Amino acid sequence: MIFRIRDAQDSVAWSEFVEIYGPFIYRYGLNRGLLDADAADLSQSVLIEVARCIDRFDYDHKLGRFRNWLVVIARSKLSNLKKKDAKLDVSGGSQALRILSERPADSELADNWQQEYREHLFHWAAEHVRNEIEDATWKAFWLTAAENRSPADVSKELGLKVGTVYVAKSRVLVRIRAKLSEVDDTIGED
Length: 190
Fold this sequence. Notes:
mainly alpha
């Protein structure tokens, strides 16, 4: 998908890109202390910048991942937003600026970006494969993978054999990984 968005006319790729990354960037802004409208502005600003620069993005997973490039853009736009807010309220009374100044520096949050990214994509992929999975299989997967319950407990609760729970978890994970590989070919490298 990353390469497909280089074509501005590929509306399917762009819709999927915005569906995946728009909410993620929005939450990134909220997690850095932005108010709702400012987080929405940040998300829009980052997506516009990606659209403007994607044709120059040269993907080589040895040099860095797309998500690392994306966080550079997001940090830059967040910094611009902080500067803009500071200029608008030179008296220092802006609540948004105060909240932002109380947040940890982005360097302290770098690991959070990676973790948030993985969690966001996992939930996105899980939502997309959920309707392809039988209920019992999904429950066995979710209880073991997402809720971290033991396969033995889940087998008792659902009335399944322990081996069936392991197989269910494995099958759903294969589907989720396949969905993730459609949007990020570095998911399995971490």
